[in-house]
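MODEL INPUT / OUTPUT PAIR
PAIR INDEX: 1
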Amino acid sequence: MTTTEIFDLLVSQFGSEKIVAINTEAIDPWIEVAPAAIHEVAQFLKSDERLILHHLNNLTAVDYFQPDPKKAAKFGHDPHLELVYHLSSYDLRHSLVVKVKLPRWQNDVEGDIPEIDSVADVWAIADWHEREAYDLMGIKFGGHPNLRRILCPEDWVGHPLRKDYEFPLEYHGIRGK
């Protein structure tokens, strides 16, 4: 199935409140899903016999933030985080990119990281991918079986791939900058 055909199927199944947008002009066309709907949409994408998207190739996060106020006006995006899910079906030989937009901070409270439902019970490999997104980008995954840091030490402060992250001057007596 093409991305457009999958989009039409998802809109008919879930409605336009949950299946937010489609972009077919991108190099990797994608479908945007509302954050609150990701778990149920993921289950459908994996189990529906027309899709059988049983493989999560990658789950990553992107920070759309321009820390330089002079460049922010030309940036062209409201500050937000995006989760990107790359899915494929070996049986049906098609793939899909799903995106979910999240606020940079939960309820616009700086330092309070956003939360979304985990899909680790849908695709087991999401366990590790979600831990990486939590550790490096600061996204909580509700219902995750083991949400803890995977690359940084447990006592590390902050999420180092956020564009506004400030590297510590010192960590346990070791000079950072």
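PAIR INDEX: 2
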Amino acid sequence: MTDLVVLGFSDKDKAEAVMRLSQELSKQELLDLADAALAWRTQDGKIHVRQSFNPTATGAAGGALWGTLFGLLFLMPVFGAAVGAATGAVAGKLTDVGINDAFIKEIAGTLEPGRAAVFALVRRSTPDRVRDALRPFGPTVLRTSLTKDREEELVAALQR
């Protein structure tokens, strides 16, 4: 089962550092994310979102591979790759996986100018080690899909 955790940060730099940290924790097998996103609001109030998973690019890459294989069977690998990539990109664009885009924009709209948020869809983690790694960045728990008790535990652990 996956859990959604949205953490708020005082600025975009801290949120970006946490996104890099999540990659490092993944390499150490302490954190397994199904999806992650970074949202921030600039001083002029504009909202920006950067997602870590791009279904369009993934679909295009997969489509190109399958298109090439089918193209090889019919002696037209370049044409097959092009058609496969285009088909895969369209399929990826139409597929909404991971964290809902509308939800990300809704939460980002509540951020004060200059602030940022990290959205994480967590498959599996080593909670104590992940919380210890996050604590220096001073995150605020904005939303979770955790039970009330687990959410309160997370808030308390991050405030130490």
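PAIR 2 NOTE: The chain has six helices and five strands.
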